[in-house]
């Protein structure tokens, strides 16, 4: 079958000879994709410097699919059904999940395996090990675009807002307004933030940030962001900062601009390479600032994605607006990846319909 694979570091291509997926008893399913979204994480997998990947790894972790076959123990899904496939697929039978450790149960990043350490969804057919705990029913009235955005982008952005423990009336800064940052803005607004300062410059993202709840959009081109935030908050700083983009200076900047005593910084950004992620001594109170830093991976699983799609169904969010580019044909996955790599001015997310 055809699949989009990581041939070697820096080289991703379509192959005609990928192995067929195996149905895993008793809970597995085999699916065929109907809509896929190449992601910045896929760019990092192909071109980044992360851990060694399996040979000829099938890429991809954002997908809406049709069920082809299910194993004997599957209760809630049948062949022919249309489903959303969460990007995060924990093994819900791991004991550590009962401790609340759903994303790193058993080993680091165990929930973040799809298209990274196990075969992903960019194939004519792919397997999921546990259908009932992983796949998500798509409610009536939820479009392919909306469902596709929920499997990764919405859940990641909302994870940032939730982990920041936003309270009614908070001032929140969102650093970076690509797709994840835009959903962090939306999540912060829904959780009751009174003032949301988003940071970004691309016109399409600025427009969507304001539509999703940002009061102001700040630009790095107009000076140091921490100084801008402190200036706008009377020197106090923001109640919470959610990092969704930027370079290695993003974390120290966030700590610079968040309040002493109760400030929360949540990082959703991938920091490539080796070395340290630094906390500045001064704004860190030389270790005593009372500021909280969380380094987060997004939440996944069936219940999570189905709840997010309810937010679409009942008109609370419209994440399909993030899809600025649509491509048709399985072979266009490669083009989609390059679009995400090069980030044109008018791009937020790409949807590929094979």
From TrEMBL:
<dbReference type="Pfam" id="PF00107">
    <property type="entry name" value="ADH_zinc_N"/>
</dbReference>
<dbReference type="InterPro" id="IPR036291">
    <property type="entry name" value="NAD(P)-bd_dom_sf"/>
</dbReference>
<keyword id="KW-0479">Metal-binding</keyword>
<keyword id="KW-0862">Zinc</keyword>
<dbReference type="InterPro" id="IPR011032">
    <property type="entry name" value="GroES-like_sf"/>
</dbReference>
<comment type="similarity">
    <text>Belongs to the zinc-containing alcohol dehydrogenase family.</text>
</comment>
<dbReference type="Pfam" id="PF08240">
    <property type="entry name" value="ADH_N"/>
</dbReference>
<feature type="domain" description="Alcohol dehydrogenase-like C-terminal">
    <location>
        <begin position="179"/>
        <end position="270"/>
    </location>
</feature>
<dbReference type="InterPro" id="IPR013149">
    <property type="entry name" value="ADH-like_C"/>
</dbReference>
<protein>
    <submittedName>
        <fullName>Threonine dehydrogenase-like Zn-dependent dehydrogenase</fullName>
    </submittedName>
</protein>
<dbReference type="InterPro" id="IPR013154">
    <property type="entry name" value="ADH-like_N"/>
</dbReference>
<feature type="domain" description="Alcohol dehydrogenase-like N-terminal">
    <location>
        <begin position="35"/>
        <end position="132"/>
    </location>
</feature>
<dbReference type="GO" id="GO:0046872">
    <property type="term" value="F:metal ion binding"/>
</dbReference>
């Amino acid at each position: 079958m055809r699949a989009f694979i990581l041939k070697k570091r820096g080289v991703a291509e379509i192959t005609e000879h990928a192995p067929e997926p195996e149905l895993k008893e008793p809970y597995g399913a085999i699916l065929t994709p109907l809509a896929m979204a190449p992601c910045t994480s896929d760019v990092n997998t192909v071109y980044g410097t992360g851990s060694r990947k399996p040979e000829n790894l099938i890429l991809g972790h954002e997908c809406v699919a049709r069920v082809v076959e299910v194993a004997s123990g599957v209760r809630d899904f049948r062949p022919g059904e249309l489903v959303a496939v969460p990007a995060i697929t924990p093994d819900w039978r791991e004991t550590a999940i009962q401790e609340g450790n759903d994303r790193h149960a058993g080993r680091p990043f165990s929930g973040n395996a799809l298209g990274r350490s196990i075969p992903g969804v960019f194939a004519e057919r792919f397997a999921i090990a546990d259908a009932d705990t992983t796949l998500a029913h798509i409610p009536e009235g939820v479009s392919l675009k909306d469902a596709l955005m929920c499997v990764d982008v919405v859940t990641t952005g909302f994870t940032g807002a939730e982990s920041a423990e936003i309270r009614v009336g908070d001032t929140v800064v969102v650093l970076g307004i690509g797709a994840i940052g835009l959903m962090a803005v939306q999540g912060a607004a829904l959780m009751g933030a009174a003032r949301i300062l988003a940071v970004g410059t691309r016109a399409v993202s600025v427009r969507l940030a304001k539509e999703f709840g940002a009061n102001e959009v700040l630009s790095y081109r107009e000076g140091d962001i921490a100084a801008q935030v402190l200036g706008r908050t009377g020197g106090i700083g923001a109640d919470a900062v959610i990092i969704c983009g930027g370079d290695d200076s993003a974390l120290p900047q966030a700590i610079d601009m968040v309040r002493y005593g109760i400030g929360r910084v949540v990082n959703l950004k991938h920091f490539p390479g080796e070395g340290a992620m630094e906390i500045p001594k001064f704004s860190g109170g030389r270790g005593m600032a009372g500021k909280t830093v969380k380094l987060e991976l997004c939440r996944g699983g069936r219940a999570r994605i189905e709840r997010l799609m309810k937010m679409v169904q009942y008109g609370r969010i419209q994440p399909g607006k993030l899809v600025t580019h649509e491509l048709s044909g399985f072979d266009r996955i490669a083009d989609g990846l390059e679009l995400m790599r090069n980030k044109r001015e008018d791009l937020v997310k790409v949807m590929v319909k094979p």
